[in-house]
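Need a sequence for this fold. Nothing fancy.
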């Protein structure tokens, strides 16, 4: 899709506050939809701030022990809105990843064990939300951002 010299991965990312949500999943799982939903949640006051980082393709790199996400240059500021096509939005050129969401995750569980609540990407351990196929991801993301787990 792009001719970027640095490899990209299929993912979307949204900056929420100081950290980004990295959204992964198979084609058609709803990565762009969750990105749009998070941006709209902020616009409607449900989140203090949200801005697109990347949709469809992104670069990941480790710097200073943090995982950074950047949009593929050819797609910077672009997001797919199903039924409307490609739309242009304000975007962040780089963000530190704070949580990973895996859509259509085959290991999603009602009560995930501690091993399923984290993922390691390029040596960086990050909190992870596994969302089963058919579940809406936005309410789960809002719960992660607004609540604290019991026992922590």
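Here you go.
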């Amino acid at each position: 899709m792009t001719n970027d010299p640095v490899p990209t991965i299929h993912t979307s990312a949204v900056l929420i506050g100081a950290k980004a949500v990295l959204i992964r999943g198979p084609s058609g799982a709803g990565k762009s939809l969750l990105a749009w939903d998070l941006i709209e949640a902020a616009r409607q006051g449900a989140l203090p701030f949200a801005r697109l980082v990347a949709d469809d393709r992104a670069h990941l790199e480790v710097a200073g022990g943090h995982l950074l996400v950047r949009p593929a240059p050819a797609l910077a500021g672009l997001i797919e809105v199903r039924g409307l096509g490609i739309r242009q939005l304000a975007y962040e050129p780089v963000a530190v990843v704070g949580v990973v969401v895996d859509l259509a995750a085959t290991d999603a569980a009602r009560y995930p064990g501690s091993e399923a609540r984290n993922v390691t990407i390029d040596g960086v351990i990050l909190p992870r939300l596994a969302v089963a196929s058919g579940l809406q991801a936005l309410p789960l993301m809002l719960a992660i951002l607004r609540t604290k787990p019991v026992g922590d």
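For context: The first helix runs from residue 31 to 43.
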